[in-house]
Amino acid sequence: MYRIMKKAELRPTLMLLEIEAPRVARKARPGQFIILRVDKGGERIPITIHDVNHVTGGVSIIVQVVGSTTYKLNRLREGDFIQDFVGPLGRATDITQEKVCVIGGGVGCAIAYPVLKAFRAAWSEVHAIIGFRSADLVILEDEFRASSELLRVCTDDGSYGEKGFVTDALVDLIEAGNHYDEVFAVGPVGMQRGVSRATEPYGIKTTVSMAPLMIDGTGMCGCCRVSIGGEMKYACVDGPDFDAHKVDWDLAVQRSRSFYEFERHKYEETCNLFKKEVQ
Q: What is the mean pLDDT of residues 256-268?
């Protein structure tokens, strides 16, 4: 069992949890993830590690309430326990000393932030772009600003920062003469595809952190497969980072939508169940 050391609401459906897991904290590196279960009968869900505290042994994750398991997780309080918290899993992000642009979209900023810090710690010159649908969804702005030489904040509707997509800000920076050795992007699949298409004409190395459907996290189930350069890879053991220009984006988008209706149904079912228990 793993104790919830801290719980903070970032937005109405977005929470930060710090879990007491010292063995995971000791070995975790930027880009890696964990798999958790809320209870014995719960499903396994993968969540990328946001931060670690080597003093307390805490591992922080940022979770968006979108389905049955995340709804159950959101009902827990500080001091409560979850059943399983397994990791770190996946390959850590390859951190080199260079000029990079780190891009986060929505909740993907939780994944981009530790990568951003790692590049900065390696004395890289780091620029950052973060994008959200609207002002009420903006997260981690202060953290990104403190860890990058330049930050651009975008919202789709223009309610905060610059109006437009992260790709607009990226192309603007490139056209302004910024010669990036690498662009690292994480967020919705459509956003990552957009970044890949934006950098390809410039020949800029582009890395994306893929988060496909996943079950066991060991490569046994084959659920998290992604097509990279015509070869089938498994995000849980071969990734989650891949060369953006080799990803079969049409297949990735199709697979990301496979269980949307099922997930929505289970979320509603779980909400109704808890409402009946309260009554």
A: 57
